Amino acid sequence: MTVREGSAEVKLPDAVFYNPVQEFNRDITIAVIRNFLKMHLREFIDKGIKIAASKNAPPEPTNYVGISILEALAASGLRSVRFANEIPLVCKITANDLDPEATKLISENAQRNNVSGLVKPTCSDAVSLMLNTTPGTAYGKYGGVAIKMTAQHEQVSYNQHVSKGQAVMSNNCEGLRLLLYAIQQAASRHGKVIEPLLSLSIDFYARVFVRVRSSPGSVKHVAAKMALVYSCTGCQVSAHSNMREPFQCA
């Protein structure tokens, strides 16, 4: 079976399940990473100008190396191939899967689309790979968040982008806030803070894109942004109570 999606054309065995509904999900991921790249490049340029100004000298030309992308659960590699074709300034894409047959399929599809120079297939456990990958990676991920979040925050060093999906929600807003809270809790243990970029409620699951920054000092103020919500079981009226007041120097 041959599947054409976006700029990619991949070959899938008949036994492989292809869900065309997820094309929207892949489109969103590509759009978010492209916009993140614009932000990242602008900040890279501004940083160079700021450093030059502090030295009272003209900015020195420096090369922007781009970003690397890790798709920890790549399956056929369709998403990674689309990343390579549709996202500029990408220096490396690691497409991982635990199944050796899937890894072989990723390699074949990368060659089929002439992106084998960018897409590097690996066969490994997703959590182990994230714990041992060089920092500086953006992800597109599915599945439960409990174990994988710790590995992601271990892997991310500074100013990077992480995508998380989590199934099963009740109230849309509450579900998104709980997911963001869980991600921040995992980040705090590693001296990092998150900045939500985009939060989505799609069908039966939530999808959030966050930016992760290394900032042990900012972690101390995270509790001021957290609150407990009290909801009446009778009239459904709710109220919130901040965990702590914002810290102010005397």
TrEMBL record:
It holds the Pfam family TRM. GO terms for cellular component: nucleus. This is tRNA (guanine(26)-N(2))-dimethyltransferase. Gene3D superfamilies: Vaccinia Virus protein VP39 (3.40.50.150). One of its GO terms (molecular function) is tRNA binding. One of its GO terms (biological process) is tRNA N2-guanine methylation. The lineage of its organism: Eukaryota, Metazoa, Spiralia, Lophotrochozoa, Platyhelminthes. The keyword Phosphoprotein does not apply. It comes from the Eukaryota. Its EC number is 2.1.1.216. Belongs to the class I-like SAM-binding methyltransferase superfamily. Trm1 family. Keywords: Methyltransferase, RNA-binding, S-adenosyl-L-methionine, Transferase, tRNA processing, tRNA-binding.
